[in-house]
Amino acid sequence: MNTPIPYRTRFAPSPTGLLHIGHAYAALFAAKMARENGGDFVLRIEDIDTGRCRPAFEAAIYEDLAWLGLEWQSPVRRQSEHLADYQAALDKLDGLGLLYPCFCTRKDILAEIETANGAPHLAATGPDGPLYPGTCRNLSTDERAKRIADGTPFALRLNMGLAQKSGPQLHWMDGVKGKILATPEIFGDVILARKDTPTSYHLAVTVDDHIQNIALITRGTDLFMATHIHRLLQSLLDLNTPHYHHHGLITDADGQRLAKRNKARTLRTIRKSTTHAPRSFAELKTLYTGLS
Ligand code: GLU
Q1: Which of 219, 222, 224 to mutate to test the pocket of ligand 1 (most atoms within 8 A of CB)?
Q2: Which of 35, 68, 130, 137 is most deeply buried (CB count within 10 A of its CB)?
Q3: 125 and 106 in one domain?
């Protein structure tokens, strides 16, 4: 196992659009935590969703971050170039008997939930909505082989019951909330490789954070719940367990998320409105609200 570098932090945007003020806060926060604690700051481009990612947005990320005065270590890790790392993790989980192919469409899942519960609102629900009802978990080996041979697209799901069966009780340390008990079962059988992408957000970030030797993961509270899954994957795959700091999301005086209030208000828009590059988040926020 690698020894994490104390306070190596990361910013991990997806190049599916231009960065907004919420991204700026997250990036500046991660870099500040590294700087104030003698660590370093790395960047990762989360571009596994090839349908939505664009090279122009990636180029804009570098420009906007440089405008904010940020510097990051080279090389930048681009997820689309590391599919073999995610495949190795899937192979390991498969070797442990923890994965199964799921052929269900969204429609199949909803229909199954309705049949099983009488009404969708009675279904067991997790942080991301109704839990997968387990339709494909018990398919026979022959049935699986037949559907794969037929060319039916499939995702790979984690058999959560088995994955948790004999494992130790897991925790993580959160900079805001302290010691958190991991309860990944609240998500049910999560998808670890999608039908259209040979990995998933959860698998890719967990593997990457280990490979990039990240010691402190800083990210918004919107990703707090995902850490329950990441902690389990770390344990199953024998990966490092970093510390976490889930920071609040940027809101205006009315408590509304700034990034949501005005989707068009990107860092690029703010940048074009001024000749002055902000040297702190407070300065950036002043520029931002000056535009409102
Ligand atoms: N790529 C994710 C996002 O843009 C962040 C992933 C993470 O910080 O774990 O929201």
Answers
A1: 219
A2: 68
A3: yes
